[in-house]
């Protein structure tokens, strides 16, 4: 597919011209720059943000182009060969310049997206590679203005403008020039998106959307926009290779803002306790986590999809774990001062408790997602349907989380009323989760056809829900949402227990009929090869002779005809000494025949 797209992108406009026209005028080459680059990027690493893989592809592509064009730079000693307008005799020379610019750009982005960010030396190298990309993109624009058709020339101009804007964007200078470059590229793609086939229009529209955040950020830096920090963060959630530079810049700006805000943060408040924070890294990590918590618990949290909430929870966990690692490092390096150690231990306990609460919230969100898929039928999109066993596993995790949080809050001396209240809340949540787990465990047994076990578990779930409901209603500040959920659980447990009871009675009434039907289905041999064991092989185990209720395969008695078995037989005696015995000659003792006179002549 990539070869077909590259072939379509290398079309020449003057295929319909006469031979005399081709002699007098130079051919105009057509390169669909955006389509060519988008296809190469998506197929060679940038779908997953792997710039190193894309750079290797550009290097290999350039090597093939140099070799096929016979435009190498010498075998032993390097000899520079410049590409000028006169050199471009076919479209592959334009591809040569384009992929050289892409290689330099991908190398710069590879350094930009390092896990810990580029250091001073790497940043200097990064800017140098971006300058190289701008140089080759400008050469590509110049060559296309002479050798390309009007559309190719416009795309090359937009490409060069984007590269120049990216360089200025990274250098944090000349924001007005960067804004002009980005706007120029956007204007070209908006105009090109009105023409061509549907695929080209979609690509141009996507490119315009990718350029929009960079333009808004430039306006924000110039001061011509009232853009807030939260709006910048929402813009940074967009996807696309053109936005990676913007995301890195936004993350650096947010980190700088947090470090400035962390200077005024001296204490951490938790359940009426105040813990001083002396480490700057701990402050920044806690501030980052608190900003992310505002997105989850804010007014716009209801409009967030579940997948984005899960991503935010992962970022919160990473920030709090980073804060805990800083606190524990401070504990190791702390002096013999008991007050400092107590404060750090209390801060570690507070961060751990918040982590436990957020873990419970995340697992409750997973339960909500699983419940929404519980009663769904598998559709054409092959969406995974939740089984009751998965909900049982999630509630096991929630019970473990609440137990850990209860142990953490209950530890220590001189507990305050808020800590005691949180411990009681953990006990109450544990009762609710136990009732929910029992309910879905009953559903699991019901789907397996085990009516007795399902009925007993539904009754147990109803009693657990009733006990939790009474305890919750006796509390002063009862959660009305939880009360409503428990009432629903109680009613469903009661109705399902009645259903299981009725199904059990119906199955018991039909048991003789089903038994006779199953016995009539028993075959001596059968043709089904899925049966694990035959009935004759299970005589020493107590199992149903007609199979379980949920087993669809008819039981088999024995293989017929029976398989061959080895049997003992009489031993074979081989006389091996007979051939080695030398017997004496008996010729002397044998009786000789007497012959007559005439027989001597005829004998």
TrEMBL record:
Coiled coil: none annotated. GO terms for cellular component: cytosol; endoplasmic reticulum; nucleolus; signal recognition particle, endoplasmic reticulum targeting. GO terms for molecular function: 7S RNA binding; endoplasmic reticulum signal peptide binding; signal recognition particle binding. Residues 1-24 are annotated as: Disordered. Keywords: Cytoplasm, Endoplasmic reticulum, Nucleus, Ribonucleoprotein, RNA-binding, Signal recognition particle. GO terms for biological process: SRP-dependent cotranslational protein targeting to membrane. The keyword Transport does not apply. InterPro entries: SRP68 (IPR026258), SRP68-RBD (IPR034652), SRP68_N_sf (IPR038253). Belongs to the SRP68 family. Component of the signal recognition particle (SRP) complex, a ribonucleoprotein complex that mediates the cotranslational targeting of secretory and membrane proteins to the endoplasmic reticulum (ER). The SRP complex interacts with the signal sequence in nascent secretory and membrane proteins and directs them to the membrane of the ER. This is Signal recognition particle subunit SRP68. It comes from Nicotiana sylvestris (Wood tobacco).
């Amino acid at each position: 597919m990539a070869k077909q797209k590259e072939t379509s992108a290398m079309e020449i406009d003057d295929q319909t011209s006469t031979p005399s026209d081709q002699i007098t005028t130079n051919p105009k080459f057509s390169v669909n720059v955006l389509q060519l680059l988008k296809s190469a990027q998506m197929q060679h690493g940038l779908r997953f943000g792997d710039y190193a893989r894309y750079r290797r592809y550009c290097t290999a592509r350039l090597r093939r182009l140099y070799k096929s064009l016979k435009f190498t730079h010498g075998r032993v000693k390097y000899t520079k060969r410049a590409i000028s307008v006169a050199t471009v005799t076919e479209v592959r020379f334009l591809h040569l310049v384009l992929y050289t610019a892409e290689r330099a750009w991908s190398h710069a982005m590879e350094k930009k997206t390092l896990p810990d960010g580029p250091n001073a030396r790497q940043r200097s190298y990064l800017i140098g590679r971006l300058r190289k990309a701008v140089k080759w993109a400008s050469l590509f624009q110049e060559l296309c203005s002479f050798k390309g058709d009007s559309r190719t020339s416009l795309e090359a101009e937009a490409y060069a403008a984007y590269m120049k804007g990216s360089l200025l964007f990274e250098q944090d200078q000349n924001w007005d020039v960067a804004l002009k470059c980005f706007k120029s590229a956007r204007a070209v793609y908006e105009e090109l998106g009105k023409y061509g086939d549907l695929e080209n229009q979609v690509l141009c529209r996507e490119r315009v959307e990718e350029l929009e955040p960079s333009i808004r950020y430039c306006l924000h830096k110039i001061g011509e926009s009232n853009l807030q920090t939260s709006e910048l963060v929402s813009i940074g959630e967009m996807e696309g290779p053109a936005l990676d530079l913007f995301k890195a810049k936004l993350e650096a700006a947010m980190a700088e803002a947090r470090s400035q805000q962390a200077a005024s943060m001296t204490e951490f408040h938790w359940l009426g306790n105040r813990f001083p924070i002396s480490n700057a890294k701990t402050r920044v990590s806690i501030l980052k986590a608190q900003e992310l918590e505002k997105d989850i618990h804010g007014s716009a949290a209801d409009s967030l999809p579940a997948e984005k909430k899960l991503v935010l929870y992962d970022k919160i966990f990473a920030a709090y774990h980073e804060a805990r690692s800083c606190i524990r490092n401070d504990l190791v390096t702390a002096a013999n001062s008991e007050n400092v150690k107590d404060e750090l231990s209390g801060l570690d306990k507070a961060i751990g408790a918040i982590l436990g609460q957020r873990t419970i919230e995340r697992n409750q969100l997973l339960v909500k997602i699983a419940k929404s898929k519980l009663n769904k039928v598998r559709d054409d999109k092959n969406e995974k349907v939740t089984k009751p066993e998965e909900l049982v596993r999630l509630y096991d995790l929630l019970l473990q989380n609440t137990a850990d949080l209860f142990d953490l809050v209950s530890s220590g001396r001189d507990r305050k009323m808020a800590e005691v209240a949180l411990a009681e809340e953990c006990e109450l949540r544990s009762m609710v989760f136990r009732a929910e787990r029992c309910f879905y465990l009953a559903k699991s047994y019901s789907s397996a056809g085990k009516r007795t076990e399902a009925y007993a578990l539904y009754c147990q779930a109803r009693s657990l829900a009733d006990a939790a409901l009474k305890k919750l209603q006796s509390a002063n500040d009862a959660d009305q949402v939880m009360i409503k959920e428990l009432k629903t659980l109680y009613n469903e447990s009661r109705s399902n227990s009645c259903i299981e009871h009725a199904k059990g009675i119906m199955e018991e009434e039909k048991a003789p009929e089903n038994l006779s039907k199953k016995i009539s289905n028993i075959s001596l041999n059968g043709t089904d090869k899925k049966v694990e064991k035959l009935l004759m092989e299970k005589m020493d185990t107590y199992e149903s002779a007609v199979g379980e209720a949920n087993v669809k395969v008819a039981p088999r008695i024995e293989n017929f005809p029976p398989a061959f078995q080895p049997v003992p037989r009489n031993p074979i005696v081989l006389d091996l000494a007979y051939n080695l015995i030398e017997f004496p000659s008996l010729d002397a003792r044998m009786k000789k025949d007497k012959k007559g006179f005439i027989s001597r002549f005829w004998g």
